[in-house]
Amino acid sequence: MTPPPPAPPARAARLRPGDRVAVVAPSGPVPADQLTAGLTVLRGWGLDAFATPHVLDGHPHLGHLAASDAARAADLQRAWCDPSVAAVVCARGGYGAARIVDLLDWAAVRAAGPKAFVGFSDVTALHEALAVRAGFATLHAPMPATADFLAATGAGDRAREHLRTTLFAPQEVCTPATGRALFPGRAEGTTLGGCLSVLAADLGSPHARPGARGGLLCLEDVGEEPYRLDRYLTQLLRAGWLDGVAGVLLGSWRDCGPAEAVRAVFADRLGPLRVPVLEECGFGHAPGAPTLPLGAPAVLDADAGTLTLGAPALG
């Protein structure tokens, strides 16, 4: 007997002026000045934005972490389970989210229901866990305590405005990504993915999804040379994780080497899948990066160069 298809991911409610927004640090240490500036931006949108207690603590002996694993997990857990909090926003990425995933009370997270969840990069581990363990849709989006988000440039303005519109008026963002065809075609599915190296590292963990079958896989990364991108893709291929994927979107590859070399890796590794692939979509580690909903029904039309949502990112 064929099992029923999985339920669509649950969407959070769109934000409204006055909503409380918790800023957490699940990964690397957060510069205090950038945190202050990021909170100012969020408050300028009419949100009651606040930093959770341990955002600026620092880890007792590991300088690459924002605070102890227990403290980072506790901040995220309390924020998610607080019914007065409408959204949870990650201050920045770095490394460390995977260390706290198994410290969270997932039954309590599910019971609290979906919230707008914002972040990318290392936060991919939490996007995946929220999808797999809670069934929630999330937002792969620029984070407020980062230089690209705070940049006083046209690119910074675009990134901030795209996130603001997605949070407050998601019906106005029906085409969150555009690019050009690496491989042509059209596909429908649910968006998933994030940082390529984090997805590869997640394989075999309790919160990793079994594969990307039927989905529109969104990939980006930073500071990974072409041979390492090849390694991550090869690992996903060998594990069967890419079997049945409906289509692929490629975002930014900042500091990953010459564009031609990066493109050659993706052509070589993804070509045999014979699915549409849209490149140069701009999401991820790039100035002006758009907000990309994960867990959203969408249509990828590589020939037209578009990803079009079938429903707003937030309800």
Mean pLDDT reading: 96
Largest sheet: 8 strands, mixed
- Figure out the total of helices: 10
Helix content: 25-40%
Tell me the strand order in the biggest sheet.
6-14-13-8-9-10-11-7
CATH fold type of the largest domain = Rossmann fold
Q: What's the SSE pattern?
A: EHEHEHHEHEHHEEEHEHEHEEEE
Top CATH class of the largest domain: Alpha Beta
Task: Name the CATH homologous superfamily of the largest domain.
Answer: Murein tetrapeptidase LD-carboxypeptidase, N-terminal domain
Question: How many domains make up the coordinates?
Answer: 2
CATH architecture identity of the largest domain: 3-Layer(aba) Sandwich
Q: Regions with pLDDT < 50 over 5+ consecutive residues?
A: none
Backbone structural class: alpha/beta
The end-to-end distance, rounded to whole angstroms, is: 34 Å
Strand content: 15-25%
Give the overall silhouette.
globular
What would you report as the Rg, rounded to the nearest angstrom? Answer: 18 Å
Number of strands: 14
Short description:
The protein has 315 residues and is α/β, with parallel strands linked by helices.
